[in-house]
Amino acid sequence: MASGGPNWEGLLKWSLAHSDGTSPSRSLTEEDRKWFMEAVQEQTIDVVKRMKEISLVMQTPEHVLEDQGVTPADIEDMLDELQEHVETIDMANDLHSIGGLVPLLDYLKNSNANIRAKAAEVVTTIVQNNPKSQKLVMEANGFTCLFSLLKSDPVVNVRTKALGAISSLIRHNKPGVIAFRKENNAYEALRDGLASESPRFQRKSLSLINYLLRENSSDCIIVNKLGVPGLMVQLASSTDVDVREGALQGLLVLARGKTEGVIEDEKLKQVLRKRIEDVGAGREERQLVDSLWDACYNEPSPLRENGFLVLPGEDAPPPDVASKHFEPALRALAPKP
To answer: Residue 272 gets which letter from DSSP?
Structure first.
């Protein structure tokens, strides 16, 4: 045990001695009570107080922090801690009321790329599946800040983190979707993500495109004009399985919307044939290929014709491993044959 830390072993023994049920409960002496409270408080963090302290640091001008010896790495560590605190919805929603949301969004404009990226990651945590915080971030002009990063930040990692935050901000958030679709070059920014060399950026771009197209099928016309289907066809041959499946899902949405750029693409048929020939393709990918083939060509895919859509054993129940090690009590006591 590290020196200076609480005596957890002693605390455990004390707790057991006073609550093991073998003796009647007794009143704590003032000395016992004081010792116990001090032991607990050493490991108790007032999260709201700590978030207020972090918020004050975020509001401090950059040059003042530098004069005090605070480095960009220190700021990143602080944002890491803040992210842990806001993982609970209550703490995420409290960030604005204690004055921390606006300075966090200001960090999206920080001169240090790592801080910009980390701030976007914290925003993602705050707004994910959280309608109240989504609304607060939208009202604080957070969408505009994030979209500016996605569109023009020189660092791919920052653009990727900004896209992740935007995706969490606008999902199941109608005002967010409207704000995104109002941007003149919104889909262009996502197209650039598909054209990047970063599989992570590609995955996030595909995920958001697919979500938006399912929510607004009329946008299929826009992405077709931007050449998105052709990029998806290329990514359907990616070595990254998640990128491949994301591209196939997007192409399926477009094909079902009768998008000409998909159903008339001869290269797509070649790509699908290669995916069909890949014996290592997973079940979900095979099903996507089969559905896409049917949507484009109105006929069963070779996978279905050859019985490869579901391979032997894929529909079987999982093996019963546990019962080999944990037999029912009566069976375990029965004489073995």
So the answer is: H
The pTM of the full predicted model, rounded to 2 decimals, is 0.79
Distances (CA, A) of 92 to 45, 81, 261: 17, 13, 43
Cα–Cα nearest to 76, from 97, 107, 41, 38: 107
Backbone dihedral region for residue 318 (phi beyond 0: left; psi -120 to 50: alpha; all else: beta): beta
Residue 124 Cα distances to 43, 72, 133, angstroms: 28, 21, 10
pLDDT at 279: 58
Say if residues 147 and 183 touch (Cβ distance below 8 Å): yes
d(CA 106, CA 75): 13
Alpha carbon distance 256, 292 (integer Å): 8
Q: What distance in Å separates the CA atoms of residue 258 and residue 264, rounded to the nearest whole number? A: 10
pLDDT > 90 fraction of the chain, expressed in percent and rounded? 60
Q: Give the three-state DSSP class for 16.
A: helix
What confidence tens digit (pLDDT) does each residue in 261-301 have? 676 667 888 999 988 887 567 888 889 999 999 988 888 88
Coil/strand/helix, residue 25:
coil
For 203-220, b where at least 16 C-beta lie within 10 A, e where not — what string? bbbbbbbbbbbeeeeebb
Q: What would the pLDDT profile of 55-78 be if each residue is shown by its tens digit? A: 999 999 988 988 889 999 999 999
Q: What is the largest CA-CA distance in the chain?
A: 84
Token pair 């003149």 is found at: 184
Residue among 289, 309, 183 at smallest CA distance from 236: 289
C-alpha span between 178 and 172 (Å, rounded): 11
Rounded CA separation 142/119 (Å)? 11
The token pair at 250 is 């997007």
